[in-house]
Design a protein that fits this description.
By secondary structure, the chain is α/β, with parallel strands linked by helices. The protein has helices at about 10-25, 35-45, 60-70, 85-95, 105-125, 155-165, 175-185, 190-205; strands at about 5-10, 30, 50-55, 75-80, 100-105, 130-135, 135-140, 145, 150, 170-175, 215, 220-225. Strands 2-1-3-4-5 form a 5-stranded parallel β-sheet, sandwiched between helices. The chain has a 4-stranded antiparallel β-sheet with strand order 6-7-8-9, with no helix packed on it. The chain has a 3-stranded antiparallel β-sheet with strand order 10-12-11.
Length: about 230
């Protein structure tokens, strides 16, 4: 049975483009042109993935995410946002969106985001005790981190930060989310930048050109998911 994608956008040309492209990749596609119709479609027949424009008439994309998450819906949400709407992207992610793609976007990028969101959902349903990505391995049971087979010593805070990134591998995490989960409060984001820099020094082949911990400018960080 094909995976079902609900596309929510008020621009018919974009919906047509996404329907054609996603159908060609084997997805079943449903459409909605506003937030109210999107929520009704989710209630009627929940999709596997929601591709959601933020700038909708009436009920906007942020309110759609808020109502879905408040109602307990856990389906992956990929946000479509304008290039200038950085604050909107951060708010959407804080409300529970899984990822975002900035308009104008390439179809390959959107497909990669959809695959990553689906992988992340499966991973969260049955969290794996051992994470591997390239030369990096994190044993979540024994709390051991190795790079190319050599154990790397992390401080408790560094490990907590890496474990959070591993638990959400492939998903962008906002500064606010990371600070709340690791520090327990909205601490100064400069603390986070310092710890990210320290982690990169220990696990990256080239800390100046990170392969594992990727910066999402103005938004947060993402741990590269295993290929």
């Amino acid at each position: 049975m094909p995976l079902r994608v609900l596309v929510v956008d008020d621009e018919p040309p974009i919906r047509r483009f996404l329907r054609t492209s996603l159908t060609a990749q084997g997805y079943e596609v449903a459409e909605a042109e506003d937030g109210g119709a999107a929520l009704e479609e989710v209630r009627r027949r929940p999709p596997d993935v929601l591709v959601l424009d933020l700038g909708l008439p009436g009920l906007d994309g942020l309110e759609v995410i808020r109502r879905l998450r408040d109602g307990g819906a856990s389906l992956p949400v990929i946000v479509l946002s304008s290039r200038a709407d950085e604050a909107g992207k951060v708010e959407a992610l804080d409300l529970g969106a899984d990822d975002y793609v900035t308009k104008p976007f390439g179809m390959d990028e959107l497909l990669a985001r959809i695959r990553a969101a689906l992988r992340h959902r499966l991973q969260r349903q049955g969290e794996r005790p051992l994470f591997r990505s390239g030369a990096l391995a994190v044993d979540l049971v024994r709390r051991i981190v190795t790079v190319q087979g050599t154990e790397v010593k992390l401080s408790p805070r560094e490990y907590d930060l890496l474990r959070l990134l591993v638990a959400h591998a492939g998903k962008v995490l906002t500064h606010r989310f990371i600070l709340k989960e690791v520090w327990g409060a909205d601490t100064d984001v400069q603390y986070l930048r310092i710890y990210i820099r320290q982690l990169r020094q220990k696990i990256e082949p080239d800390p100046e050109r990170p392969h594992h911990i990727l910066t999402e400018t103005g938004v947060g960080y993402r741990l590269r998911a295993p290929d």
